[in-house]
Amino acid sequence: MSASLSDRIDQGTGRVAADIVLKNGRFFDLVTGECIESDIALCGDRIVGTCGSYQGVEEIDISGCIVVPGFIDTHLHIESSLVTPHEFDRCVLPYGVTTAICDPHEIANVLGTEGIEFFLDSARETIMDIRVQLSSCVPATHLETSGANLPIETLLPYRDHEKVIGLAEFMNFPGVIHKDPVCLAKLEAFQDGHIDGHAPLLRGLDLNGYLSAGIRTDHECTTAEEALEKIRKGMHILVREGSVSKDLHALMPILTERLSPFLALCTDDRNPLDIAEEGHLDYMIREAIAHSVDPLVVYRAASISAARAFGLRDRGLVAPGWRADLVVLESLETCKAQMVFSGGRRVTDALFATRRPVAPVGLDSVRAGHIHAAAFAVPYTEGETSVIGVLPGKIITEHRRFQLPADGNQTGVDLGRDIIKVAVIERHGVNGNHANGFVQGFGLRTGAIASTVGHDSHNICVVGVDPDDMALAANRLGEIKGGFVVVENGVVTGEIALPVAGLMSLEPYESVRDTLHHLRQAAFALGATLQEPFLQLAFLPLPVIPHLKISDKGLVDVDRFMLIG
């Protein structure tokens, strides 16, 4: 909804009535930190007037409200919301998120360029501005079997796409530091564009080498000390608060006015149930202010600082000439959106109805074949057995060792110490690999839960107490073309179908939200103690220090890899 330059000048000077005027409110000036009483005039997709009085073709009374720039989620995987980009748009935009910078890494690891094109086509239709970063690590690691391989030659045709910002999170930082030719080829191709970072726990000279490759952002900081070192070395820190990875409180010491130009906010992975219960970036803003962070700091991080970090020079301030992405709030502290404008368009149900649909892809991506209970048997051996230790609220896991009981000639579970079975089953139809291990920390006392969402290669991951229940859960995933399944005593007690690449639902986000609530209750009935057992299951295959990874290729000690998150 762009307007001519001539129209913008005429409406900005007041010679012609503006298209829309927000009257009788205030706006939050992110330069001075003041709340300024003023009309706000819009022409097409731009703000053309502030700090004055305007007449409008449409005038909207916002008495008592404060206007802030639209929020920018600087790093997320829309697939992890479990809904398509169209439904994510409808779910999140009313919370004030007008720009989302996504990495279609998950669908790319399943479908390759077909998945990337699905996101690019969707981004052309959504009301919010979805920007795409090209997935840099497909496959994510040689320790796993994914459904695709994307060398630099497959990414270059999309480099200049109108919705592409640059190269997505470069997770393989050991490959950068040790000059892996495949890594260097991708980095070389994007030296004049944005390269997103991903470097958990990377410090010192190794960090210097990583940054020397032209990488400028990181969303993996889990301590203020780590974040401060990276800021000192020129990185822009994306403070993350998702459904599993929750770093906001740990990073609050760096949320200061001095550092605010080098901060942004992101969710990485957040599902519709958490959005409904808590919110999205608005939740982060409220939470930070409630813990004494200056509103100027967190609203800067949510908009202008985020925009500058990713080269989006047209948004992030309530000022003439800037993109009319606006959130009308009842107060800065509550951050509750009363009204949202995206590119000058007031967000309504009718506006969402104007979008053209995009055909779903990957509806036959679960090809694991039939799985028998005997496949989950682990032969008994003397001595200690490696066990993955789950850390609630973190994607980082621990490598633990325990003497486990014998069950005949097999290694049994140990419910007294919360140790149950875990398996990863290759589901792309590449090699049929199946690997078993043990995990501590899920809390299950019976049954099994299974998922086709298994970062980053998205094979089937199943945890459980009983092999028959584990087999039933895994096989049910094939029948529903992917998703989450809960089984108890031979009965499916909860499920959600995610047929789009085994990652996303075809249902409205409200339906997904309600089903997730039921799924969570079904998992709790098994004894699950984790608040987000399904997302924790989805992150279980990740190789992150200190970690014993279970993949379709086996249970492997990967303490030197620390690639993914």
UniProtKB/TrEMBL annotation:
Against Gene3D superfamilies, the record matches this protein to:
Metal-dependent hydrolases, Urease, subunit C, domain 1
A GO term (biological process) for this protein? adenine catabolic process
Q: Where is the Amidohydrolase-related domain?
A: 66-347
Q: Does the keyword Cell inner membrane apply?
A: no
GO function terms (MF aspect):
adenine deaminase activity
Keyword Repressor listed? The answer is: no
Q: Where is the Adenine deaminase C-terminal domain?
A: 395-561
Q: Identify the domain of life.
A: Bacteria
Q: What is its EC number?
A: 3.5.4.2
Q: Which reaction does it catalyse?
A: adenine + H2O + H(+) = hypoxanthine + NH4(+)
Q: Which Pfam families match?
A: Adenine_deam_C, Amidohydro_1
SUPFAM superfamilies noted in UniProt: Composite domain of metallo-dependent hydrolases, Metallo-dependent hydrolases
Which cofactors? Mn(2+)
Sorted alphabetically, the keyword list is: Hydrolase, Manganese
Q: Which NCBIfam families match?
A: ade (TIGR01178)
- Alphabetical list of HAMAP family matching this protein: Adenine_deamin
Q: Please state which protein family the record places this protein in.
A: Belongs to the metallo-dependent hydrolases superfamily. Adenine deaminase family.
What is the name attached to this protein's record?
A: Adenine deaminase
User: In the record, what lineage is assigned to the organism producing the protein?
Assistant: Bacteria, Pseudomonadati, Pseudomonadota, Alphaproteobacteria, Hyphomicrobiales
